[in-house]
């Protein structure tokens, strides 16, 4: 089965549409979402509806948690807090109820889905170094842990039995096509697909991953989208201009 892994869409309908179109052309059969569908961008309701239509398996991110009162707003930066307050006003009962039903962690063999860390997932720690990722892999009961939150793609391969780091892949060329060992019981893989709607690795294109569970391959993808349109919507909504400006920078 070919599975698309989407994370950190952040209300960016233009980016999400481009990503879904690319996934469909690649024969994707299942969609997995690692949270932060809302926040920052100007189309939270439409983005939630698109994922609902795709029957995506999803977990809650910190922006969903902020919208439904499960995370204090003083946890967020000023611009993120302003975006959450605006987003909350756009969401109706149906959307808010859907957010309340999201869990911190979901298991969909061979995947474990979480927005940030499996250790206290409700605290949304940023896993920015390999040691933190390995810690989460020790808590993972499935072959592959899928996590987002940092908006930066990477893959880590680790052997639990030997406590040995096997691979850390961060460069675009390395991430384009990665094989994984499905038969190795002690192997674990940490996969961060980057961000669909607000990448922070210097590449402004929408980012996502496709995992082929039949061929045991992981591939990271980037696709161009109408950034100017997404920026215009953010500004017209009265959201902080910084949130529009950064889309073109990939930062």
Give the SSE layout.
Elements: E1 2-6, H1 13-25, E2 30-33, H2 44-53, E3 57-58, H3 62-67, H4 78-90, H5 93-100, E4 105-108, E5 111-114, H6 130-139, E6 144-147, E7 154-159, E8 164-169, H7 172-175, E9 178-179, E10 187-192, E11 206-212, E12 217-223, H8 227-236, H9 241-245
Parallel strand pairs: 1-2, 2-3, 5-6, 6-10
Antiparallel strand pairs: 1-11, 4-5, 7-8, 7-10, 9-12, 11-12
What this model shows, in words?
The strands form 2 sheets. The chain has a 6-stranded mixed β-sheet with strand order 3-2-1-11-12-9. A 6-stranded mixed β-sheet has the order 4-5-6-10-7-8, with helices on one face. It is built from 9 helices and 12 strands. The protein is 31% helix and 23% strand. A hairpin with a 4-residue loop joins strand 11 (206-212) and strand 12. It is globular, with a radius of gyration of 17 Å. It has a single domain (2-248), classed as Purple Acid Phosphatase, chain A, domain 2. The protein is α/β, with parallel strands linked by helices and 251 residues long.
Question: What's the gist of this structure?
Answer:
The chain is α/β, with parallel strands linked by helices. Helices cover 31% and strands 23% of the residues.
Features:
12 strands, alpha/beta, six-stranded mixed sheet, 251 residues
**Beta-strand residue fraction:** 15-25%
The largest sheet, given as strand count, sense and whether it forms a barrel, is: 6 strands, mixed
Count of runs of 4 or more consecutive helical residues: 9
Helix content: 25-40%
What is the CA–CA distance across the termini?
Answer: 33 Å
Mean pLDDT: 97
Number of strands: 12
Shape: globular
What fold name goes in the CATH topology slot?
Answer: Purple Acid Phosphatase, chain A, domain 2
- Write down the secondary-structure element order: EHEHEHHHEEHEEEHEEEEHH
Uncertain residue ranges: none
Q: Could you say which structural class the secondary elements and strand pairing correspond to?
A: alpha/beta
CATH architecture: 4-Layer Sandwich
